[in-house]
Amino acid sequence: MRLLILGGTEFVGRALVAEGLDRGWDVTVFNRGNKPAPRGVTALTGDRGDPATLDFDGRWDLVVDTWSWAPSAVRDSANALVGKAAHYTYISSRSVYEYPTPPGAGEDAPVVQADPNDAMTSYDRDKAGGELAATAAFGDQALLVRAGLVLGPWENIGRLPWWLARARRGGRMLAPGPADLDLQLIDVRDLAAWTLTAAEQRRSGPYNLVSPPGHTTMRDLLAACLKETGSDAELVWTDPEKILAEGVEPWNDLPIWIPPGELHDVMHRADVSKAVAHGLRCRPAEETVAATWAWMQEIGGTPAQRPDRKAPGLDPAIEARILNR
Question: What average pLDDT score do residues 2-21 get?
């Protein structure tokens, strides 16, 4: 298979490259060239924001687009690849659904209004606009991967790396309750494997891509962080009300964690039966934690932060205040 990845140097794109190479495919990446291309790929250079640089020289069986900003860039890239690629996959997000999506919502839930010709607006509308752009260009040869919470090696958002670094620091460690809070996530390597198989099978339309609900819990995730880092930290399980009373922002100050309620249901109660029926398999969360920690050791510590995202994590002073109270 001849695979073109638009991106290919960070997180999801990097996992797609690794999966494609493991399959023995001919992999090409297209990006601005600001970061070294992974070994074993052909590198093409261009700027998604400048249509004049989108003169793709080649023919591909599959294209995977990891773009997260202006839908117009997806429009321009997809249009430039019509006739040069047989199938187009756009890595979208479950954020495209109108809020709040009810527990158990599937791919037929209402999507936010968007325009494929827009410049950058908001994350949900940008992703929805990207979907429209990919579908307008490739029709029934466009696959829309609506990813949920993605964790694993190469993460450049800092969610799981923050918890691992915090566990490694040891001491009394704030553990946001309830301990049995269920989490729905996907290892980036499982996302990459399912995506390439689905693209090879020429699947089209939207798929929610995240683990089935209840894949793991906060207790099991944090226990795995302690185990992998060899930490002697003492987990201090704390009620959500006490944490929120200190102005702590779920998801950002305490990555991954969202207390029980509407937002938790939106993030962690999606219906993924369609993807499961078409081959989605998710490895245990403990394996995701172990692989992420091993990767952090390889690169010598905390990974670089994606520049358009605020680094997550709780101020140690606020953590200490909550624990002291």
Answer: 97
Nearest by Cα to 175 from 248, 244, 254: 254
Question: Nearest to residue 209, comparing CAs of 99, 113, 89, 126?
Answer: 89
Whether the bond between 71 and the residue before it is cis, its omega within 30 degrees of 0, is: no
246 pLDDT tier (thresholds 50, 70, 90)? very high
Q: 129-156: per-residue pLDDT in tens?
A: 999 999 999 999 999 999 999 999 999 9
What is the number of residues in the chain? 325
Distance in angstroms (rounded) separating the CA atoms of residues 184 and 263: 13
The 10s digit of each residue's pLDDT in 84-135 is 999 999 999 999 999 999 999 999 999 999 999 999 999 999 999 999 999 9
Q: Which domains does the chain have, with CATH numbers?
A: 2-147 (3.40.50.720), 153-183+214-268+285-324 (no CATH)
Closest listed residue to residue 252, CA positions, set 150, 122, 157 = 157
Q: How many CA atoms lie within 13 A of 82 on its CB side?
A: 14
Nearest Cα residue to 72 out of 124, 29, 134: 134
Question: Is the full-model pTM beyond 0.90?
Answer: yes
- Rounded to the nearest 10 degrees, how much is the dihedral formed by the CA atoms of 65, 282, 308, 17? -40
Q: Where are the beta strands (DSSP E) in 94-169?
A: 142-147, 149-151
What is the C-alpha to C-alpha distance for residues 20 and 7, in angstroms, rounded to an integer?
A: 14
- Cis amide prior to 36 (ω within 30 degrees): no
- Residue 266: in which H helix or E strand, if any? helix 262-268
Other beta carbons within 10 Å of 136: 15
pLDDT tens figures, 202-223? 999 999 999 999 999 999 999 9
Residue 255 phi, psi dihedral angles, 5° rounding: -55, 145
**What pLDDT was estimated at residue 178?**
98
- Chain-centre distance for alpha carbon 55: 28
